């Protein structure tokens, strides 16, 4: 059996939150066996802890947000993907803000930090979600999105995306093993269309977004005054509205970088199942909402079948042990 792992040492990162715009310090710590991923809000009274599990996701609008008893923390998916890819089973994450820092918009800095501190092998066996005869599929008829998990002894993801955009129509990305994540997926950045920005700001989102932590797609010409207004809202330099293209400061790392980032998000959101998946994921136009639906479906089935079966097995073994125990008679010696 494969053994569980945790971090060998702690590490600290800091930066601004993509949606809240709040500066955050985040610390990743070793954790004991069977601990899983837990997040501590160190800025709140009592330093409450949230289990990073699929059923605790309360919002999926442009990011994954956990909420337990009114305590929440958001944009966790990039860090979760990095932990999962590095095969970390147990980690306590301390953060002093309601959102993880976006850093450069990818998972690469999380991944590099994990690699730098190293991992520690523990004694307990790893928890696997292994269903040799069970397929899972979730669909959203309104968006055309679908995700499915096909049984396999190998983990992998096939991700296909499509948009009504002359610059970003259809793209695909794939991951055939966790070992490919560092080279092929970790550095892929989140992305946004310029035409979405005003609406996102109106929804109190992307307060910390800029041209350094996201791929920004300007795919259709808009009036110069409107383009200037968006630039001012984002706090970036004004540009010529007649020139369409990718307008972030750092050019694309890959021609299909958006698809690679969507794959990264799928991995991070599915890391909330609470263990390691044995299966191949096929994602068509994925998003945080449908990613979470698949993670919930997997967890629900696991709890209702595997955990319940294990519970009954233990109860049966306990009852058999009690029944097999020799009867004890009470007797007294007769003393002269």
From TrEMBL:
GO cellular component: membrane
Pathway membership: Glycolipid biosynthesis; lipid IV(A) biosynthesis; lipid IV(A) from (3R)-3-hydroxytetradecanoyl-[acyl-carrier-protein] and UDP-N-acetyl-alpha-D-glucosamine: step 2/6
UniProt: Zn(2+) binding residues: 78, 261, 265
GO biological-process terms attached to the record: lipid A biosynthetic process
EC number(s) stated in the UniProt entry for this protein: 3.5.1.108
UniProt similarity note: Belongs to the LpxC family.
Name of the protein in its database record: UDP-3-O-acyl-N-acetylglucosamine deacetylase
Gene (name only): lpxC
